[in-house]
Amino acid sequence: LDPLWSLNHYHFLDSARENKRGIILSRYSGLGSHRYPLGFSGDTFTRWSALRFQPEFTNKAANVGYGWWSHDIGGHMMGFTDDEMYVRWCQYGVFSPINRLHSSTNELQAKEPWKHSEQARKILSDFLRLRHALIPYLYTENYRAHTTGRALCEPMYYDYGKKKGAYQVPNEYTFGTQLIVSPIVRKHDKRINMGWTDVWLPDGQYTDIFTGRRYEGGRKFRAFRDMEFYPVFAKAGAILPLSGDEGNDCGNPKNLKLWLFRGNGEYTLYEDDGISNDYKNGKFANSRFAVKETGGVLTFTAYPAEGDTSVIPEGRKITLCLRDVIGGKVFVNGKQVPFSTEIVLPASQEETVVSIEDFVPTTNGDLIENAKVVLSRWQKSNHTKLLSYLPLKNKKTPEEYFKAVQRQIMFPKILRDAVKEVFLP
Fold first, then answer.
1. Which residues span the domain enclosing 33?
2. Are residues 30 and 137 located together in one domain of the fold?
3. Is the same domain home to 269 and 330?
4. What pLDDT digit, counting tens, does each position of 163-190 carry?
5. Taking Cα atoms as reference points, which of 49, 53, 48 lies closest to residue 71?
Protein backbone atom coordinates (compact mmCIF):
# COMPACT_ATOMS: atom_id res chain seq x y z
CA LEU A 1 0.00 0.00 0.00
CA ASP A 2 1.16 3.53 -0.79
CA PRO A 3 1.34 5.52 2.48
CA LEU A 4 1.38 8.89 0.70
CA TRP A 5 -2.32 9.59 1.24
CA SER A 6 -2.15 9.06 5.01
CA LEU A 7 1.15 10.92 5.23
CA ASN A 8 -0.43 13.88 3.45
CA HIS A 9 -3.36 13.80 5.83
CA TYR A 10 -1.28 13.85 8.99
CA HIS A 11 1.27 16.36 7.72
CA PHE A 12 -1.64 18.56 6.67
CA LEU A 13 -3.14 18.39 10.15
CA ASP A 14 0.24 19.05 11.74
CA SER A 15 0.73 22.21 9.67
CA ALA A 16 -2.73 23.40 10.74
CA ARG A 17 -1.89 23.63 14.45
CA GLU A 18 -2.45 26.84 16.43
CA ASN A 19 -5.33 28.12 14.30
CA LYS A 20 -3.29 28.08 11.09
CA ARG A 21 -4.34 26.79 7.70
CA GLY A 22 -2.93 23.43 6.69
CA ILE A 23 -0.92 23.24 3.50
CA ILE A 24 1.67 20.85 2.07
CA LEU A 25 3.54 20.20 -1.17
CA SER A 26 3.10 16.61 -2.27
CA ARG A 27 3.21 14.35 -5.26
CA TYR A 28 -0.14 13.16 -6.58
CA SER A 29 -1.60 10.46 -4.35
CA GLY A 30 -4.76 9.57 -6.24
CA LEU A 31 -8.30 10.82 -6.63
CA GLY A 32 -9.35 12.95 -3.70
CA SER A 33 -5.84 14.10 -2.86
CA HIS A 34 -6.73 17.60 -4.05
CA ARG A 35 -7.92 18.26 -0.50
CA TYR A 36 -4.27 18.47 0.56
CA PRO A 37 -2.79 21.08 -1.77
CA LEU A 38 -0.33 21.85 -3.17
CA GLY A 39 0.22 19.17 -5.79
CA PHE A 40 3.65 18.53 -7.28
CA SER A 41 3.47 17.21 -10.83
CA GLY A 42 6.82 15.42 -10.76
CA ASP A 43 10.37 16.00 -11.96
CA THR A 44 10.32 17.74 -15.32
CA PHE A 45 12.82 17.48 -18.16
CA THR A 46 13.93 20.86 -19.50
CA ARG A 47 12.41 20.49 -22.95
CA TRP A 48 9.80 22.22 -25.08
CA SER A 49 7.77 18.99 -25.11
CA ALA A 50 7.45 19.14 -21.31
CA LEU A 51 6.27 22.75 -21.46
CA ARG A 52 3.70 21.85 -24.13
CA PHE A 53 2.31 19.15 -21.86
CA GLN A 54 1.81 21.20 -18.69
CA PRO A 55 -1.06 23.58 -19.59
CA GLU A 56 -3.40 20.85 -20.85
CA PHE A 57 -2.43 18.66 -17.89
CA THR A 58 -3.23 21.46 -15.46
CA ASN A 59 -6.51 22.37 -17.12
CA LYS A 60 -7.81 18.81 -17.22
CA ALA A 61 -6.87 18.24 -13.58
CA ALA A 62 -9.87 20.45 -12.80
CA ASN A 63 -12.01 17.52 -13.99
CA VAL A 64 -11.12 15.67 -10.78
CA GLY A 65 -11.16 18.73 -8.55
CA TYR A 66 -7.39 19.15 -8.50
CA GLY A 67 -6.82 22.85 -9.05
CA TRP A 68 -3.63 23.81 -7.22
CA TRP A 69 -0.75 22.28 -9.15
CA SER A 70 2.86 23.26 -8.63
CA HIS A 71 5.07 22.53 -11.63
CA ASP A 72 8.82 22.62 -12.11
CA ILE A 73 8.64 25.96 -13.90
CA GLY A 74 11.59 26.19 -16.28
CA GLY A 75 12.24 22.46 -16.07
CA HIS A 76 14.14 20.52 -13.43
CA MET A 77 16.83 18.39 -15.06
CA MET A 78 18.35 17.06 -18.27
CA GLY A 79 17.26 18.76 -21.47
CA PHE A 80 19.07 21.91 -22.54
CA THR A 81 19.41 25.61 -21.76
CA ASP A 82 17.34 27.89 -23.96
CA ASP A 83 16.54 31.44 -22.83
CA GLU A 84 13.44 31.62 -24.97
CA MET A 85 12.07 28.37 -23.56
CA TYR A 86 12.79 29.56 -20.03
CA VAL A 87 10.99 32.86 -20.64
CA ARG A 88 7.94 31.15 -22.14
CA TRP A 89 7.88 28.68 -19.26
CA CYS A 90 8.04 31.44 -16.67
CA GLN A 91 5.33 33.37 -18.49
CA TYR A 92 3.15 30.29 -18.19
CA GLY A 93 4.13 30.07 -14.53
CA VAL A 94 2.86 33.61 -13.95
CA PHE A 95 -0.54 32.48 -15.19
CA SER A 96 -0.60 29.08 -13.50
CA PRO A 97 -1.82 28.08 -10.01
CA ILE A 98 1.60 28.03 -8.32
CA ASN A 99 4.67 29.71 -9.79
CA ARG A 100 7.67 27.78 -8.46
CA LEU A 101 10.99 28.14 -10.29
CA HIS A 102 12.74 24.83 -9.72
CA SER A 103 16.38 23.91 -10.16
CA SER A 104 18.70 20.95 -9.61
CA THR A 105 22.17 20.19 -8.24
CA ASN A 106 23.62 21.32 -11.57
CA GLU A 107 25.02 24.73 -10.65
CA LEU A 108 25.12 25.77 -14.30
CA GLN A 109 21.45 24.96 -14.91
CA ALA A 110 20.40 28.34 -13.59
CA LYS A 111 16.86 29.50 -12.84
CA GLU A 112 17.76 32.94 -11.46
CA PRO A 113 16.69 35.59 -14.00
CA TRP A 114 20.01 37.45 -13.66
CA LYS A 115 21.89 34.38 -14.91
CA HIS A 116 20.26 34.61 -18.33
CA SER A 117 20.61 37.06 -21.20
CA GLU A 118 19.80 40.71 -20.59
CA GLN A 119 16.70 40.43 -22.78
CA ALA A 120 15.48 37.40 -20.84
CA ARG A 121 16.30 39.01 -17.49
CA LYS A 122 14.26 42.11 -18.25
CA ILE A 123 11.27 40.12 -19.50
CA LEU A 124 11.40 37.79 -16.50
CA SER A 125 11.68 40.72 -14.11
CA ASP A 126 8.55 42.33 -15.55
CA PHE A 127 6.51 39.14 -15.54
CA LEU A 128 7.56 37.99 -12.07
CA ARG A 129 6.69 41.42 -10.68
CA LEU A 130 3.31 41.13 -12.37
CA ARG A 131 2.79 37.76 -10.71
CA HIS A 132 3.40 39.34 -7.32
CA ALA A 133 1.04 42.19 -8.13
CA LEU A 134 -1.65 39.65 -9.04
CA ILE A 135 -1.85 38.31 -5.47
CA PRO A 136 -5.18 40.08 -4.65
CA TYR A 137 -6.74 38.48 -7.74
CA LEU A 138 -5.16 35.08 -7.08
CA TYR A 139 -6.27 35.15 -3.45
CA THR A 140 -9.84 36.02 -4.35
CA GLU A 141 -9.93 33.26 -6.97
CA ASN A 142 -8.46 30.86 -4.41
CA TYR A 143 -11.35 31.66 -2.09
CA ARG A 144 -13.77 31.10 -4.97
CA ALA A 145 -12.17 27.69 -5.53
CA HIS A 146 -12.52 26.93 -1.82
CA THR A 147 -16.21 27.83 -1.68
CA THR A 148 -17.42 26.66 -5.11
CA GLY A 149 -14.98 23.96 -6.19
CA ARG A 150 -14.14 25.88 -9.39
CA ALA A 151 -10.44 25.73 -10.22
CA LEU A 152 -8.29 28.75 -11.03
CA CYS A 153 -7.34 27.19 -14.39
CA GLU A 154 -10.17 25.46 -16.22
CA PRO A 155 -10.55 24.11 -19.77
CA MET A 156 -12.53 26.34 -22.11
CA TYR A 157 -15.33 23.79 -22.30
CA TYR A 158 -16.23 24.43 -18.66
CA ASP A 159 -17.87 27.78 -19.40
CA TYR A 160 -18.46 27.26 -23.12
CA GLY A 161 -19.29 23.58 -23.36
CA LYS A 162 -21.79 24.00 -26.21
CA LYS A 163 -19.21 25.62 -28.48
CA LYS A 164 -17.13 23.39 -30.75
CA GLY A 165 -14.14 25.70 -30.54
CA ALA A 166 -13.86 25.16 -26.79
CA TYR A 167 -12.67 21.59 -27.44
CA GLN A 168 -10.11 22.54 -30.10
CA VAL A 169 -7.68 24.43 -27.84
CA PRO A 170 -6.67 22.02 -25.03
CA ASN A 171 -3.85 24.28 -23.81
CA GLU A 172 -6.08 27.36 -23.53
CA TYR A 173 -7.89 28.07 -20.28
CA THR A 174 -9.81 30.54 -18.19
CA PHE A 175 -7.59 32.04 -15.51
CA GLY A 176 -10.14 32.90 -12.87
CA THR A 177 -13.30 34.73 -13.85
CA GLN A 178 -11.73 37.66 -15.69
CA LEU A 179 -9.01 36.32 -18.01
CA ILE A 180 -8.38 33.82 -20.80
CA VAL A 181 -4.83 32.55 -21.38
CA SER A 182 -3.45 30.84 -24.48
CA PRO A 183 0.14 29.77 -23.70
CA ILE A 184 2.97 29.86 -26.22
CA VAL A 185 4.65 26.49 -25.83
CA ARG A 186 6.90 26.17 -28.86
CA LYS A 187 10.03 27.87 -30.14
CA HIS A 188 9.62 30.97 -32.29
CA ASP A 189 9.46 30.65 -36.05
CA LYS A 190 12.82 31.83 -37.39
CA ARG A 191 11.24 33.24 -40.55
CA ILE A 192 9.46 35.97 -38.58
CA ASN A 193 11.11 35.74 -35.14
CA MET A 194 7.79 35.45 -33.30
CA GLY A 195 6.20 32.76 -31.21
CA TRP A 196 2.64 31.70 -31.91
CA THR A 197 -0.33 29.85 -30.49
CA ASP A 198 -3.80 28.88 -31.67
CA VAL A 199 -6.51 30.86 -29.89
CA TRP A 200 -10.25 30.44 -29.68
CA LEU A 201 -12.24 33.29 -28.16
CA PRO A 202 -15.94 32.91 -27.27
CA ASP A 203 -18.51 35.45 -28.40
CA GLY A 204 -17.88 38.92 -27.01
CA GLN A 205 -15.13 41.53 -26.91
CA TYR A 206 -11.65 40.95 -25.50
CA THR A 207 -8.52 43.02 -24.90
CA ASP A 208 -4.98 41.67 -24.85
CA ILE A 209 -3.76 42.91 -21.47
CA PHE A 210 -0.20 43.41 -22.75
CA THR A 211 -0.60 44.83 -26.26
CA GLY A 212 -3.95 46.58 -25.71
CA ARG A 213 -5.27 45.12 -28.96
CA ARG A 214 -9.02 44.59 -29.09
CA TYR A 215 -10.47 41.33 -30.44
CA GLU A 216 -13.96 40.32 -31.44
CA GLY A 217 -14.73 36.81 -30.20
CA GLY A 218 -16.60 33.94 -31.78
CA ARG A 219 -13.57 32.87 -33.80
CA LYS A 220 -10.40 30.81 -33.82
CA PHE A 221 -7.15 32.38 -34.98
CA ARG A 222 -3.40 32.15 -34.66
CA ALA A 223 -1.83 34.75 -32.35
CA PHE A 224 1.77 35.86 -32.86
CA ARG A 225 3.85 37.45 -30.12
CA ASP A 226 7.36 38.73 -29.50
CA MET A 227 9.05 37.21 -26.47
CA GLU A 228 8.10 40.31 -24.43
CA PHE A 229 4.39 39.57 -24.85
CA TYR A 230 2.04 36.74 -23.89
CA PRO A 231 -1.51 36.06 -25.14
CA VAL A 232 -3.72 36.94 -22.15
CA PHE A 233 -7.18 38.29 -22.90
CA ALA A 234 -9.41 40.27 -20.56
CA LYS A 235 -13.13 39.89 -21.05
CA ALA A 236 -15.20 42.98 -21.77
CA GLY A 237 -16.04 44.58 -18.43
CA ALA A 238 -13.19 42.83 -16.64
CA ILE A 239 -11.96 44.32 -13.37
CA LEU A 240 -8.57 43.02 -12.30
CA PRO A 241 -7.36 43.85 -8.76
CA LEU A 242 -3.60 44.18 -8.33
CA SER A 243 -1.28 45.22 -5.54
CA GLY A 244 0.54 48.49 -6.05
CA ASP A 245 2.77 47.97 -3.01
CA GLU A 246 6.52 47.70 -3.40
CA GLY A 247 8.52 44.94 -1.79
CA ASN A 248 7.85 41.25 -1.29
CA ASP A 249 4.96 41.41 1.17
CA CYS A 250 2.03 39.10 0.45
CA GLY A 251 -0.52 40.79 2.70
CA ASN A 252 -3.55 42.82 1.70
CA PRO A 253 -2.22 45.80 -0.26
CA LYS A 254 -2.32 49.34 1.06
CA ASN A 255 -2.13 50.51 -2.55
CA LEU A 256 -4.78 48.72 -4.60
CA LYS A 257 -4.84 49.07 -8.36
CA LEU A 258 -7.89 48.12 -10.40
CA TRP A 259 -7.27 47.41 -14.07
CA LEU A 260 -10.50 48.30 -15.83
CA PHE A 261 -11.55 47.10 -19.28
CA ARG A 262 -14.57 48.71 -20.88
CA GLY A 263 -17.82 46.79 -21.08
CA ASN A 264 -20.25 45.51 -18.48
CA GLY A 265 -19.05 43.51 -15.52
CA GLU A 266 -18.32 43.37 -11.82
CA TYR A 267 -15.84 41.85 -9.42
CA THR A 268 -15.84 41.26 -5.68
CA LEU A 269 -12.44 41.33 -3.99
CA TYR A 270 -12.12 38.95 -1.03
CA GLU A 271 -9.69 39.64 1.83
CA ASP A 272 -8.88 38.12 5.22
CA ASP A 273 -5.80 37.94 7.45
CA GLY A 274 -4.18 35.33 5.20
CA ILE A 275 -2.99 33.17 8.09
CA SER A 276 -5.61 32.05 10.57
CA ASN A 277 -8.94 30.23 10.38
CA ASP A 278 -10.77 33.27 11.73
CA TYR A 279 -12.35 33.79 8.30
CA LYS A 280 -14.60 30.84 9.18
CA ASN A 281 -16.04 33.01 11.93
CA GLY A 282 -16.65 36.01 9.71
CA LYS A 283 -13.30 37.81 9.85
CA PHE A 284 -13.14 38.73 6.18
CA ALA A 285 -14.18 41.59 3.93
CA ASN A 286 -15.70 41.81 0.46
CA SER A 287 -15.19 44.86 -1.75
CA ARG A 288 -17.48 45.01 -4.77
CA PHE A 289 -16.70 46.91 -7.95
CA ALA A 290 -18.83 47.26 -11.09
CA VAL A 291 -18.52 48.80 -14.54
CA LYS A 292 -21.26 49.63 -17.03
CA GLU A 293 -20.94 50.87 -20.60
CA THR A 294 -23.94 52.71 -22.02
CA GLY A 295 -23.54 54.54 -25.28
CA GLY A 296 -20.58 56.86 -24.90
CA VAL A 297 -20.55 56.72 -21.11
CA LEU A 298 -18.46 54.37 -19.01
CA THR A 299 -19.53 54.21 -15.35
CA PHE A 300 -17.46 52.60 -12.62
CA THR A 301 -18.81 52.10 -9.09
CA ALA A 302 -16.85 51.17 -5.97
CA TYR A 303 -19.26 50.02 -3.27
CA PRO A 304 -18.49 50.24 0.46
CA ALA A 305 -16.60 47.21 1.76
CA GLU A 306 -18.76 44.71 3.61
CA GLY A 307 -17.82 42.44 6.48
CA ASP A 308 -14.92 42.82 8.90
CA THR A 309 -13.07 45.78 7.42
CA SER A 310 -10.27 45.47 9.99
CA VAL A 311 -8.49 43.18 7.51
CA ILE A 312 -8.21 46.09 5.04
CA PRO A 313 -5.09 48.25 5.58
CA GLU A 314 -5.88 51.64 7.07
CA GLY A 315 -5.58 54.50 4.62
CA ARG A 316 -5.83 52.30 1.56
CA LYS A 317 -5.29 54.09 -1.75
CA ILE A 318 -7.35 52.78 -4.68
CA THR A 319 -6.30 53.68 -8.22
CA LEU A 320 -8.54 53.00 -11.19
CA CYS A 321 -6.37 52.12 -14.21
CA LEU A 322 -8.08 52.49 -17.59
CA ARG A 323 -6.59 49.87 -19.89
CA ASP A 324 -8.49 50.55 -23.11
CA VAL A 325 -9.73 54.14 -22.79
CA ILE A 326 -7.47 57.07 -23.73
CA GLY A 327 -9.73 60.10 -23.40
CA GLY A 328 -13.04 61.53 -22.22
CA LYS A 329 -14.66 63.74 -19.59
CA VAL A 330 -14.10 62.28 -16.14
CA PHE A 331 -16.46 62.88 -13.22
CA VAL A 332 -15.78 61.53 -9.72
CA ASN A 333 -18.94 61.60 -7.61
CA GLY A 334 -20.33 64.22 -9.98
CA LYS A 335 -17.29 66.51 -9.90
CA GLN A 336 -15.27 66.84 -13.10
CA VAL A 337 -11.55 66.12 -12.86
CA PRO A 338 -8.79 66.14 -15.51
CA PHE A 339 -8.63 63.00 -17.62
CA SER A 340 -6.01 60.46 -16.72
CA THR A 341 -5.65 56.76 -17.40
CA GLU A 342 -4.99 56.41 -13.65
CA ILE A 343 -7.71 57.88 -11.45
CA VAL A 344 -7.15 57.92 -7.69
CA LEU A 345 -10.44 57.32 -5.89
CA PRO A 346 -11.26 59.53 -2.90
CA ALA A 347 -10.56 58.02 0.50
CA SER A 348 -14.08 57.28 1.67
CA GLN A 349 -16.22 54.59 3.24
CA GLU A 350 -19.07 55.66 0.99
CA GLU A 351 -19.99 54.59 -2.52
CA THR A 352 -17.77 56.15 -5.19
CA VAL A 353 -18.91 56.63 -8.78
CA VAL A 354 -16.57 57.46 -11.66
CA SER A 355 -18.21 58.41 -14.95
CA ILE A 356 -16.32 58.89 -18.20
CA GLU A 357 -18.46 60.68 -20.76
CA ASP A 358 -17.68 60.72 -24.48
CA PHE A 359 -14.87 58.31 -23.75
CA VAL A 360 -12.28 57.63 -26.42
CA PRO A 361 -11.46 53.93 -26.70
CA THR A 362 -8.13 52.57 -27.81
CA THR A 363 -8.04 51.32 -31.38
CA ASN A 364 -6.04 48.72 -33.23
CA GLY A 365 -4.27 51.49 -35.13
CA ASP A 366 -3.55 51.80 -38.84
CA LEU A 367 -4.02 48.25 -40.10
CA ILE A 368 -1.91 48.68 -43.23
CA GLU A 369 0.99 50.18 -41.28
CA ASN A 370 0.70 47.42 -38.69
CA ALA A 371 0.81 44.83 -41.47
CA LYS A 372 3.94 46.45 -42.89
CA VAL A 373 5.62 46.05 -39.50
CA VAL A 374 4.86 42.32 -39.58
CA LEU A 375 5.97 41.91 -43.20
CA SER A 376 9.22 43.73 -42.40
CA ARG A 377 10.08 41.00 -39.90
CA TRP A 378 10.41 38.43 -42.66
CA GLN A 379 13.96 37.06 -42.51
CA LYS A 380 14.68 37.01 -46.23
CA SER A 381 16.91 38.68 -48.78
CA ASN A 382 15.95 42.31 -49.27
CA HIS A 383 15.72 41.81 -53.04
CA THR A 384 13.13 39.07 -52.57
CA LYS A 385 11.22 41.25 -50.14
CA LEU A 386 11.26 44.12 -52.62
CA LEU A 387 9.86 42.01 -55.44
CA SER A 388 7.24 40.34 -53.25
CA TYR A 389 5.92 43.70 -52.06
CA LEU A 390 5.37 45.24 -55.50
CA PRO A 391 1.77 43.94 -55.88
CA LEU A 392 0.86 45.56 -52.55
CA LYS A 393 2.17 49.05 -53.18
CA ASN A 394 -0.99 50.38 -54.86
CA LYS A 395 -3.46 48.90 -52.37
CA LYS A 396 -5.21 51.74 -50.55
CA THR A 397 -7.82 50.06 -48.37
CA PRO A 398 -7.26 47.47 -45.63
CA GLU A 399 -9.49 45.02 -47.52
CA GLU A 400 -7.47 45.30 -50.72
CA TYR A 401 -4.18 45.11 -48.86
CA PHE A 402 -5.20 42.04 -46.88
CA LYS A 403 -6.34 40.16 -49.98
CA ALA A 404 -3.12 41.03 -51.79
CA VAL A 405 -1.05 39.66 -48.90
CA GLN A 406 -2.99 36.41 -48.85
CA ARG A 407 -2.58 36.01 -52.63
CA GLN A 408 1.17 36.61 -52.58
CA ILE A 409 2.62 33.09 -52.81
CA MET A 410 6.14 34.44 -52.32
CA PHE A 411 5.20 35.05 -48.68
CA PRO A 412 5.47 31.91 -46.52
CA LYS A 413 2.21 30.80 -44.91
CA ILE A 414 3.47 31.67 -41.43
CA LEU A 415 3.96 35.28 -42.56
CA ARG A 416 0.53 35.46 -44.16
CA ASP A 417 -1.00 34.05 -40.97
CA ALA A 418 0.75 36.70 -38.88
CA VAL A 419 -0.66 39.42 -41.13
CA LYS A 420 -4.09 37.80 -40.90
CA GLU A 421 -4.16 38.47 -37.16
CA VAL A 422 -3.50 42.16 -37.80
CA PHE A 423 -6.71 42.48 -39.81
CA LEU A 424 -8.96 40.59 -37.40
CA PRO A 425 -11.83 42.72 -36.07
1. 4-149
2. yes
3. yes
4. 999 999 999 999 999 999 999 999 999 9
5. 53
